[in-house]
Every structure is written in C-alpha cells, then in structure tokens.
Amino acid sequence: MSTAYLDRKEWKPAPSCGKQVAVVGSGPAGITVAIKMAQLGCAVTVFEQRPEIGGVLEYGIPEFRLPRSLVQKYRHVMCSLGVRVRPSTTIGGALHIDDLLRDGYDAVFVGTGTWRARKLGIPGESRGNVLFGIDYLVDPTSVAIGQNVAVIGAGNVAMDVARTALRSGARKVTVYARSRHISAIDDEVELTELDGAEIVCGKAICAIDDNGPVFETAIFDEDNNVVGYEEELDHVAADTSVIAASQVPKDKLVLTTGGLETDHRGLLSVDGHGMTTVPGVFAAGDVVNGPLTVVHAVAGAKLAVEGMTSYLGL
C-alpha cells in the first residue's frame, strides 16, 4: 500500500458487525489485522507495549530506510476507521489475554514480534562495551558507541546496525560473519558496504573482553564449508561490540495464558487458519515465523484475517 494511496483514499468507519477484536502488538502484522478487521465492521482495540505504534517499523528499521512519517499515516488510517489504540500497555503484564476474552473481545490477534535478542552463550555478553543489535536500533542516540564498532552477525539486523553506527559517528565498522554465507538480503549487504562498513567472513565469536571480541578463524574447504579453525585466537580491538544474531519472542504471553503452546524456538504454534492452541486467539508475523521481512509479516496477517473472519462468522 503506497503512501499516495493512503493520502488519497477517504477512510471512514464501516457499519458495525457487532464483533469486538483485540490486536496485541502494532507492528506490520498488527496494523494489517486492525485495518482489515475494522473495515469489516469490527470494533478494534490495539494494545501496544511502547509509546508509539509501528513495532519494527518504528523501533527496528532505521529512519534512513523507513521514514517515521509512514507509521503515522497508518495510525491516521486506523483512527479514521474507528480503531482504538492503547499505547504503553503490555498484555502479559497487568492485563492478560484471559482478561481480553473476559471483557467481551470475540477474537484476539497476537502480533508481538521477536523482541528478545538471542544470546550467544559466550563469556562477556554482559560487559558494558557490549550491546544487542535489536536493543541498539530502538534508540541509537541513547548510547555512545565510540569510533570502532564490531558487529557480530550477518543478517539484515546486523546490516542495519552497521549502517546506523556509521551515521552515529563511528569511523570504522566491521561486520563479522561465522561462515561465508551472508543471510542478509543482497541489496542490504551492498548498501552496507557502500556506506563504508567492512564484512569479514569466517569469524566464530568465542568471547568478548574489555578490548573487544575474540574470534576463532575458520578454515574453509574448496566448497566454502568450514572444516576447522585455526589454533591462534583473533583478538579484535573495538570500542563497542554489537551482537546481532537473531531474535526470539518474549515469553510474557505464554507464561500468562493457559494452553498457549509454542515450538522449540518459543514461536507460537498456529493451525492453517492462523489460530493458536487457544480458541479465538490468532497470531501471525515474526512471533509465529521468527524474524523475517515486513512482507512476510503482512502476508501472514492477511491469512490470519481470513481465519478470524471465518471464526467470527463474518
């Protein structure tokens, strides 16, 4: 949906269908579900843990890649459709999913994303010169990263961290990949290198000390498979080390909702219609699939909308 379309279209509340829907999380999946269910005439309330809506659009993707004004346009659309937004409200904190069902919501959608950084389990992760990438991107201005930054990981978040660090005053940013497989999108890798970051492959992180990360250097065969590691460790000097090695969902919802099941990664289990193991509770996006793209989250949300529509008899 382009911004021009958002600006041109007149958004008005639909006739009421008599159903109430709660949307937990206002990232790409949550916004999609809120708008589509409101267009069907549902009374929709969005519960967002942070002060602003948008999820990864607001707090995970840097401003230079996604203008914050776009998120506000979607908020205007939701409000024009009659969607109510409760910011700074954590479901799984004072309020639980059971409270939502008790208070008359006919269906609940969970699109809470993956906001807990995955630990590497190495010595040094709690040091003051270490950050997690997903936390750093929420507010890069809140920390002084220094002149020399090491980014551990090679996914899209790692590339966003590297480019953000360069725009935040770092003079040298190096992205360290464990193998020669770079999981980030090719375009993002190219832009990261054009911005001035260096990408070094074959570095397996084993510790972080006060001076920076400590790596084992991989030995590759002719097919670029890792077949071993050099005996001597590589001690790299860096003012700040940023760990960007994927994310997992927070577990507040699971801990406070009886019968809500997950897989071995902590991702919510859903059926082919997007419904979780709790009747009437649906989910989509990163909390179901793990950290993927905005496009994947929106596509999953549309499938969940179909499931919710059928469940509500609309």
Provide an overview of this structure:
- With 314 residues, this protein is of the alpha/beta class.
- It folds into 2 domains: 3-115 and 249-312, 3-Layer(bba) Sandwich (FAD/NAD(P)-binding domain); 118-246, FAD/NAD(P)-binding domain (3-Layer(bba) Sandwich), CATH 3.50.50.
- The chain contains 11 helices and 16 strands.
- The chain has helices at residues 3-8, 28-39, 56-59, 68-80, 97-102, 133-138, 156-167, 186-195, 252-256, 286-289, 294-312; strands at residues 20-24, 43-47, 84-86, 107-110, 116-117, 130-132, 148-152, 172-176, 198-200, 203-209, 212-220, 226-229, 234-235, 240-243, 247-248, 281-283.
- It has a 5-stranded parallel beta sheet. Strands 6-14-7-8-9 form a 5-stranded parallel beta sheet. Strands 10, 11, 12 and 13 form a 4-stranded antiparallel beta sheet that branches.
Observed structural traits:
single chain, 5-stranded parallel β-sheet, FAD/NAD(P)-binding domain, 314 residues, alpha/beta
List low-pLDDT spans. none
Largest sheet: 5 strands, parallel
Q: Do you know the CATH topology of the largest domain?
A: FAD/NAD(P)-binding domain
Secondary structure category: alpha/beta
Helix content: 25-40%
Shape: elongated
Q: Give the overall average pLDDT.
A: 94
For the CA atoms, what is the radius of gyration?
Answer: 21 Å
CATH domain class of the largest domain: Alpha Beta
Total individual domains: 2
Distance between the termini: 24 Å
Order of helices and strands: HEHEHHEHEEEHEHEHEEEEEEEHEHH
